[in-house]
Amino acid sequence: LSNKVVKNSNDLPIVVVMVPLPAQGHLNQLLHLSHLISTFHIPVHFLGTPTHNRQVQLRRVHDNNSHPLIQFHDFDIPPFPSPPPNPTASHRFPSHLIPSFIAAALHLQRPLAAFLRTLSSKVRRLVVIHDSLMSSALQDVNAIPNTESYCFHSVSAFTVAHSLERKELFVNDGYKDGEITTPTYQQYFPKELNVVSMEQCFPPEFLEFIGSQFRHLPKMGAGKIYNTCRVIEGEFLEVIQRIEPEFRHWALGPFNPLKISKNGGNNKQSSCSHSCMAWLDQQEPRSVIYISFGTTTAMTDEQIKEIAIGLARSDQKFIWVLRDADKGDVFDVNEIRKSNLPEGYSNLIGNQGLVIRDWAPQLEILSHWATGGFMTHCGWNSCMESITTGVPVIAWPMHSDQPRNTVLMTMVLCVGVALKEWQQELVIADAVEEVVRKLMASEEGAEVRRNAERLGNVVRQSLEEGGESRQEFEAFIAHITR
Ligand code: UDP
Fold this sequence. Notes:
Blueprint: H1 3-8, E1 14-19, H2 24-38, E2 44-48, H3 50-61, E3 70-74, H4 98-107, H5 109-120, E4 125-131, E5 147-153, H6 157-165, H7 190-194, H8 198-201, H9 204-214, E6 223-226, H10 230-243, E7 249-251, H11 258-261, H12 275-281, E8 288-292, H13 301-314, E9 317-321, H14 345-349, E10 353-356, H15 362-367, E11 371-376, H16 380-389, E12 393-395, H17 402-412, E13 416-418, H18 429-440, H19 443-462, H20 468-480
Parallel strand pairs: 1-2, 1-4, 2-3, 4-5, 5-6, 6-7, 8-9, 8-11, 9-10, 11-12, 12-13
Helix pairs in contact: 4-9, 6-10, 13-18, 16-19, 18-19
């Protein structure tokens, strides 16, 4: 078939290809988006490397939504250096993962181009959705017939708007720190936002990687996609649209499974089989705080001990996810960093709490009506999951976009309280105890909870038939299948 015939033939399918960054928080989002798109009977190809493979594997195991229209493809890449996590590094950023990002972006380029060319000859339109941090792997995408690409920003619109306003992104040859041009929220929260410059949130080698990926973006792409929705971040999406009018900006979130977010935090009993759910079923409404710091954070034993003591003293029920930090690339059981609880701790907490050492069913926990708070590092997935389930947060950011998400959650949306001492090397037990009590057992906490529940309701309503978020998603599907 010639390209002309292919373009004109309505019989040929529209196919979506996902190109994620091999980091769990990024993979998760595109995997959820794949599920949503496939519910419109559109086939999705989810591409990866063996690095991705292990993580997708992990996600598959915990994802009951597997869909026959999603196909996984793994491309081999040469070995790359992979140091173990270092919880005492000056930047808390998981620098040990950077070599796997660089290797994936570099070595996927050629096999990806070949894959897309072959596929493009069999379809009416090939829609490529790639992580903004995998742009270099796709730099020639515009030359592939029948193909249009969309850049996916895995962070909040607030974070992107703030970076654009500070001129941190897309400057000359990639990243250069910006001259500050009074961003929309800078004037309201000068102190909070001044401590979150790119240099403070990322180590230099990751800034270099961001630059190497972002320098390709201005030349490519039919639009940009965000895991957010207008009822949460409408004004920041408008800022982005104003600064980048050449792109159409699609707010397609929340990507997390609708069947769960629809219920909000009202699931009294869950069908999930993880043992923590049976324990949750026994608890009082909104009485449990869930603690998890995402998939990349490695903490020192000293920090773990302070959290453990603070939680025990707070007198609040809790579920704490304390997984061992693994290397994030080729699985090697000898290089796992063990997260050690203080000796005798399990006797100390009795029935007060549960410590989960494996993968936790986070969405199910947040959706359970016994869950009344979430102590989180404010990774964007976790923020979106807490917002859609209406659960207020205690924000303990570590690195990357997390400090900016903290400002969004606690000061703009007012659905959380911040742990004030987050920048200190060691957060002591007293501070943990105080902030847990504040959220779970004070009038201030109750007010924040009401805000979170209100916003959760608004978001879930916007996902119903005719709602704003649902309409934008359907408009995107209509656009790519036009
Ligand atoms: N997650 C989970 N169980 C765990 C740890 C993490 O389900 O034990 C999920 C969580 O629901 C979220 C993602 O992994 O969707 C973590 O992404 P986030 O952006 O919050 O943090 P990151 O890991 O990228 O720092």
